[in-house]
Design a protein that fits this description.
Elements lengths: L18 H13 L15 H5 L6 H13 L1 H9 L14 E4 L8 E4 L4 E2 L1 H14 L3 E6 L6 E5 H17 L7 E5 L5 H12 L2 E4 L6 H11 L3 E5 L2 E3 L2 E3 L1 H14 L6 E5 L17 E3 H4 L12 E2 L3 E7 L7 E6 L1 H14 L7 E4 L6 H13 L3 E5 L10 H9 L3 E4 L1 H10 L2 H4 L8 E5 L5 H11 L6 E4 L33 E4 L5 E2 L3 E7 L9 E2 L3 H9 L6 E9 L5 E6 L3 E4 L2 E4 H9 L4 E11 L3 E10 L7 H14 L8 E4 L13 H8 L16 H8 L4
Parallel strand pairs: 4-17, 6-7, 6-8, 8-11, 11-12, 16-17, 16-18, 18-19, 19-20, 30-31
Antiparallel strand pairs: 1-2, 3-13, 4-5, 9-10, 14-15, 15-24, 21-22, 21-23, 23-25, 25-26, 27-28, 29-30
The structure holds 5'-O-[(S)-ethoxy(hydroxy)phosphoryl]adenosine.
Length: 695
């Protein structure tokens, strides 16, 4: 896929002692403000918070960190012993790894040979510990006043019924199950039911289009698809079953047929009678699942048996099926959850992410429930019926830990403080941020206004691939710097390397890599181990390459600066530029397309597409709309380009490679920073593009 020479932003980086300054300039491009002064800006934890925190000082963190990197096997074994294992691991074989491609096949194994089950640990174990009557899931519907809840004991019943149904229809250990559900309680229930019987779930975010869903169905060939008929999100109704129907038609054309489409009836959005139905294939959840017994034996699985597949974007058009296994993922998500949010059993935890993304896997479902936490699941849109909805929910459930994305913080910040101040929010204790770098002004608003300057912010840097948090400020342990994810989690050894793959020490900037495996690491890309090695382990031999740029300041704090590959981060959603390009060129009137990310005030990055039309086709507003619609239909609404820039030609090298560096400068209107254009096959193209910039 990409080699170091393809990595972008190289030109913006320097490895001299003033490197941090250079990276700040890069940040300024991404975040729209300078970080120059932020490096010295410390926000101290309040002594009260630190005193009762799980990790109350930097010294305590450092001691634990040291142990975790000097003896990872010992460190993680002690932690693993707190969970239930049907069979223990061999103490001499806690971790086997090779992440150095020059030493052969890349391979990561933790606790192999041990047997456990994550559903047992997330549900049954909490009941055995006497917490059967504790609320596991609070559910808040799209409309205020619409709600529900399940205790751990009730959750177990619901999970077992679905698990029994799945077994009865022939879903066995190792089989794939596609889940295409909105944020109903049935979504975590479905994940846990699969885990209970050893089936491998693949949740597809319910904002993906039929074509994207079909692509995933074709790749993992599930026995069954679980969905619901429709959902309300804000004022809109989304007809999910129709999307599934077209996806199944599409996959059948590719010789992948799915026998059963289990459909949850969501009466607040759509009546059963109005739902299109294919007899013999479609089954109403409510007609079958409640008839099954509420007890279901556990399938004990190997720690290295697959738990789930989650497709994510890369730098080619084809999404990657990131594969996570059971044991290491379980202890890693649970432990990171506990420390990142200073979790206490009395907490009420709300993460606004959808279970269709990794954040919803690790920090709506597994991490919190394995800790026995009460989790809030919210179906609706955070600005519906108005911009105060989040704080209304916080007060209603007395939420103590609130975890969200910078894009939401920025959009609510724009609505003004009044919507926040209308609510008390005094239950809040810890705030969290994920998905993209949080710019210091959004950080401050989140801290001062939402958290009343009382709640530490856990700015968690991690990825679908890492399974759990990698770099984050453990709250209460040390002073924070607004905009910095601060320090690595236990067992995580970050390395900043230069373009030759040489690790650089001290204050510097470059490419963020990780030196050793950690229990939550992904083990392969489904069906494509070679792509796994090429994308992540070949660019810098001996390291896992994250795809992110990063700098380390004089105090050792890490500052993430955004992707350095052809992936853009729109509202915290990862989108491959190649995916959007391939959607655009599928339009009959599009000859060629090049997509770049451009700074966006609310979304972090917006999608900016240069489009060359087929010879003789005139530009028109209608065509622009139809191009955007094509992307919505092929990927999903969240990937719709913000701007279509007509391009009579694209800047290419003589060997035909598109010079994205130049396109990025044109997109951000940094026209005096175009650099050397003399190597272009046709330098005149640049002037043509500039002339059409505002057409
Ligand atoms: C970005 C989401 C800075 C980063 C969990 C990463 C962040 C990509 C942060 C992964 C953060 C995520 N600060 N950047 N706190 N969190 N990112 O796979 O570029 O959807 O590589 O996982 O999001 O996105 P993914």
């Amino acid at each position: 896929e990409l080699g170091p020479s393809d990595l972008r932003h190289v030109e913006s980086m320097s490895h001299t002692p003033s490197g941090a300054g250079k990276i700040n300039k890069l940040n300024a491009v991404i975040l729209g403000e300078s970080l120059a002064s932020e490096e010295n800006d410390l926000v101290m934890p309040s002594p009260g918070f630190s005193q009762s925190a799980l990790i109350s000082s930097q010294e305590q963190y450092e001691k634990m960190y040291k142990k975790s990197v000097e003896d990872p096997a010992g460190f993680w074994s002690v932690i693993a012993s707190e969970f239930y294992w049907e069979e223990k691991w061999n103490p001499n074989e806690v971790c086997k790894e090779n992440i150095d491609v020059t030493n052969g096949r890349v391979n990561i194994e933790w606790f192999k040979g041990a047997k456990t089950n994550i559903c047992y640990n997330a549900v049954d174990r909490n009941i055995s510990a006497g917490n059967g009557d504790k609320v596991a899931i609070y559910w808040e519907g799209n409309e205020p006043g619409q709600d529900g809840q399940l205790t751990f004991a009730q959750l177990l019943d619901r999970v077992c019924q679905l698990a029994n149904y799945l077994k009865q229809v022939g879903v066995n250990k190792g089989d794939a199950v596609i889940i295409y559900l909105p944020m109903l309680m049935e979504l975590p229930i479905a994940m846990l039911a699969c885990a209970r019987i050893g089936a491998v779930h693949s949740v597809v975010f319910a904002g993906f289009s039929a074509e994207s869903l079909a692509q995933r169905i074709i790749d993992c060939k599930p026995k069954i698809v679980i969905t619901c008929n429709a959902v309300r999100r804000g004022p809109k109704v989304i007809f999910l079953k129709d999307i599934v129907d077209s996806a199944l038609t599409e996959s059948a054309k590719n010789n992948v047929s799915v026998d059963i489409c289990l459909t949850y009836e969501n009466p607040s959005a759509m009546k059963r009678e109005e739902t299109k139905w294919q007899d013999g294939r479609d089954v109403w959840w409510q007609d079958v699942v409640p008839n099954f017994p509420t007890k279901c034996d556990i399938e004990w699985v190997d720690a290295e048996d697959p738990l789930f597949l989650l497709y994510t974007s890369g730098s080619t058009g084809k999404p990657k099926g990131v594969l996570h296994t059971t044991g290491g993922y379980m202890i890693y998500t649970a432990t990171t959850f506990k420390y990142a949010f200073d979790y206490k059993p009395s907490d009420i935890y709300w993460c606004t992410a959808d279970c269709g993304w990794i954040t919803g896997h690790s920090y709506v479902t597994y991490g919190p429930l394995v800790n026995g936490a009460s989790v809030l699941v919210f179906e609706g849109a955070p600005n519906y019926p108005d911009a105060g909805r989040c704080w209304d929910i916080v007060d209603k459930y007395k939420v103590t830990i609130f975890y969200t994305a910078p894009t939401l913080v920025r959009s609510l910040m724009r609505e003004g403080d009044e919507f926040v101040k209308r609510y008390s929010r005094k239950s809040l204790r810890v705030l969290g941020s994920v998905g993209e770098p949080i710019n210091p002004s959004a950080w401050r608003w989140f801290f001062n206004v939402v958290g009343d300057s009382r709640c530490p912010i856990s700015d968690t840097w991690w990825q679908t691939e890492t399974g759990g948090f990698m770099i984050l400020p453990i709250p209460g342990a040390w002073p924070q710097k607004p905009g910095s994810a601060t320090f690595p989690f236990f067992g995580v050894q970050p390395a900043i390397v230069d373009e030759k793959g040489k690790e650089i020490e001290g204050e510097c900037s470059g490419y963020l890599c990780i030196k050793k495996s950690w229990p939550g690491a992904f083990r392969t890309l489904y069906g494509d181990h070679e792509r796994y090695e090429t994308t992540y382990f070949k660019p810098f031999a001996g390291y896992y390459f994250t795809g992110d740029g990063c700098s380390r300041d004089k105090d050792g704090y890490y500052w993430l600066t955004g992707r350095v590959d052809d992936v853009i981060n729109v509202s915290g959603h990862r989108i491959g530029t190649a995916e959007v390009e391939s959607a655009l060129v599928s339009h009959p009137q599009c000859a060629e397309a090049a997509v770049v990310g451009v700074e966006h005030e609310v979304k972090g990055q917006g999608i900016y597409a240069f489009v060359t039309l087929v010879e003789g086709v005139p530009y028109s507003e209608e065509l622009r709309k139809s191009l955007i619609l094509t992307v919505r239909n092929q990927i999903g609404a969240f990937a719709a380009p913000d701007k279509i820039h007509w391009a009579p030609g694209l800047p290419k090298t003589r060997s035909g490679k598109i010079m994205r560096r130049i396109l990025r400068k044109i997109a951000s209107r940094q026209l005096n920073e175009l650099g050397d254009t003399s190597t272009l096959a046709d330098p005149g193209v640049v002037d043509q593009l500039i002339a059409l910039a505002d057409c």
